[in-house]
Predict the 3D structure of the following.
Amino acid sequence: MNRIKKMPKKPNNRTIGLLDEEMSYTKKLCDTLRRDNRLMFYNHIKEGVDYLDEIIDDHMCELELSKDEDAKIGHKNADTHFFGYKTHIAMSDERIITAATITSGEKHDGKELKKLVDKSRNAGMEVEEVIGDGTYSEKDNIELANEGENFKLYSRLSRTVSEGNKRKVGGFYYNKDAGMYVCPKGHMAIRKTTVGKKKHKTEGKTMVETYHFDIEKCKICPLKGKCYKEGASTKSYSVSIKSNTHSKHLEFQETKDFKLKVKNRYKIEAKNAELKNAHAYGYADSHGISDMNLQAATTIFVVNIKRIMKLLD
């Protein structure tokens, strides 16, 4: 039992699969075994630890040399993550990509809307309507569509994304697929709680949702002391949910026009699938965001040419 207690803690279910976490754990395991003279007495154990230690050192060196400093951890849902980049695209009704932006994996999709609209218009498109998923329904985008850029935004309202934050802390964003907030370093909340009864929504009273993060990750985070107060036993992020927020957009998304238009959103998902499956765009060919932009430009060019040729036929 005493020997088991000395063993280093294994990566938990949310970090397992990340290479640097696994390598760090294995290195600690080798160091722990070396300190036990009773185990090192046996040659076959000592040779195994020496061999594993050598492999770890070689791989750690290669990992450091090959590390892409621009790439970041993003989340597809609560249980899956990826290390790399995001490509945000705008597409016409004819399924021709009119604009694209490349960001690191942790960036929020909704923040790219204005850039995509501006790029599309600069390319000669008349942007009168934009159809997108719930990540584009945040307050700034609704105001941009209605007041600034003069287009209709067909994006279902996500109350947690678009309604006011109780505490304004930069860098936190909502992942619609997982239904959780993600911190500035890309770590997803592990659970959420709600304060306030459901009837408060109809009565016009405020409800608050609090998202709780893994404190063990916060303790070793580079933002310790800024985002996380050292010594605190918990780390959470709260948003307030108000019933009268975005009432006009709520009314708009109940119209027949809105419900009909949002059905066309599947086209963008099909285009993303084409990029990844038919043109190997699911993996970066090189390192750095500049090289990722080059890969995006060449791949999108080919995809657009194929679509144009098909339309001409």
